[in-house]
């Protein structure tokens, strides 16, 4: 397999090899492709999770388990989100 790189990418690959982190350009490309594959797999997982959450929401909506979106509800959701974010980051309320 032959792969053509832009001059910028070729320089980047050569820099990685010169840094001593990799023994060859092939190692750099293989490692890069592994990372790309991992990212694609993670994106697919996230999409599947989102689709599942959307399906739950559609089902809840279908059976009437929903609330009207009001300014008060928006503020409640924001407050709840901020509290969860603060707890996750270790910030005291």
Could you explain how this protein is built, in words?
This protein has 93 residues and is mostly helical. The protein has one domain. The chain has helices at residues 7-18, 25-62, 71-89. The chain is elongated and about 60 Å long. The model has no long low-confidence stretch (mean pLDDT 94).
Number of strands: 0
Uncertain parts: none
How would you characterize the largest beta sheet?
Answer: none
Radius of gyration: 23 Å
Instruction: Give the helix tally.
Output: 3
**What's the domain count?**
1
What is the H/E string?
Answer: HHH
Percentage beta strand = under 5%
State mean pLDDT (0 to 100 scale): 94
Helix content: over 70%
Judged by helices, strands and strand pairing, the structural class is mainly alpha
Q: What's the shape?
A: elongated
- N-C termini distance: 57 Å
């Amino acid at each position: 397999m032959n792969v053509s790189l832009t001059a910028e990418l070729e320089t980047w690959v050569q820099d990685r090899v010169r840094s001593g982190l990799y023994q060859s350009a092939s190692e750099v490309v293989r490692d890069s492709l592994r990372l790309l594959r991992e990212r694609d797999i993670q994106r697919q997982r996230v999409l599947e999770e989102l689709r599942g959450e959307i399906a739950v929401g559609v089902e809840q909506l279908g059976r009437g388990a929903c609330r009207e979106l009001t300014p008060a509800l928006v503020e409640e959701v924001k407050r709840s989100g901020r509290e969860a974010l603060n707890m996750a980051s270790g910030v005291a309320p």
